[in-house]
Amino acid sequence: MPREITGFSNPLVKQVKSLRDKKHRRAEGLFLAEGLRILTEALEAGIAPRMLWHAPETAGHPLLEKLAHATEAAGGEVFVTSTDILSKLSGKDNPGAVIGVYPEMLTPLAALDRTAAGIWLVAERLRDPGNLGTILRTGDAVGAGGLILIDDCTDPFSVEAVRASMGAIFTQKVSTARWPDFLDWLRSGPGQLVGTSLNTENDYQDPHYEAPTFLLIGNESQGLPEAYERECDLLVKMPMLGKADSLNAAMATAVMAYEVLNQRRPR
Predict the structure, then answer these.
(1) What is the DSSP track for 187-201?
(2) Alpha-carbon torsion 178, 125, 246, 131, what sign?
(3) 55 Cβ contact partners less than 8 Å away, ≥ 6 residues apart
(4) What domains can you pick out in the chain, each with its CATH number?
């Protein structure tokens, strides 16, 4: 049965609210996801929340009832609370009427099966959580194996990144690595490393991409370091016919991922 939480000073409210902060997410090994759609995506991926919080007006919704049953069956707890408290938990003035608390799901680099997918996404020093979430969503759309975050990237389990992923945080494997460790792992098996760069004349539609293709996207403002570009098997660029010299990192990832996908799709 759901427990009713009415007070802002309740210790559980304080605990869940603290998960908006990276330090507390790391300490607890937990993160927040909000919205019935995203939580349903997680459940369809076989992942039930540790805690499920919802407003009274959502009670009786068939998707919420399914989530509540799954949460309790997995040993989690269900809480009913006010929209004001949900707003405090999510940090949004108009939060989704449902919030879930989930265990962080980083996959060690050594545990990735590179043969499980023909496309893998790799982001270097990505700073914007919206970009990170959108890249995860793109990875889900093209059937990528996952996202490998290189060096000091923004937290994939921040509320903003999870929100932007639209549920793909639950369908895509996420790994983190330092650049030398990633290179050692990559070169221990098959895989073509393709970097996007302005320092090349190779049009992105000209090469034949080999599977598995690892698409490497650089930092939003600085791009890839030259030393990283030298390690790529192939550098490509997209035509820029206006005044801008590059695309947004998430947009560039989507363009590249769909080019790789289109080369392999049966017509």
Answers:
(1) TTS--EEEEE-SS--
(2) positive
(3) 80, 81, 82, 83, 86, 97, 98
(4) 3-103 (3.30.1330.30), 109-264 (3.40.1280.10)
* Contact call for residues 45 and 171 (beta carbons, < 8 A): yes
Q: What single-letter amino acid sits at 19?
A: L
Please report, in tens digits, the pLDDT of each residue of the chain (267 residues total): 788 888 888 999 999 999 999 999 999 999 999 999 999 999 999 999 999 999 888 878 899 999 999 999 999 999 999 888 988 888 776 656 899 999 999 999 999 999 999 999 999 999 999 999 999 999 999 999 999 999 999 999 999 999 999 999 999 999 999 999 999 999 999 999 999 998 899 999 999 999 999 999 999 888 899 999 999 999 999 887 887 766 789 999 999 999 999 998 887
**H/E run at residue 23:** helix 22-28
pTM given for the model: 0.92
* Cα separation, 29 vs 105, whole angstroms: 9
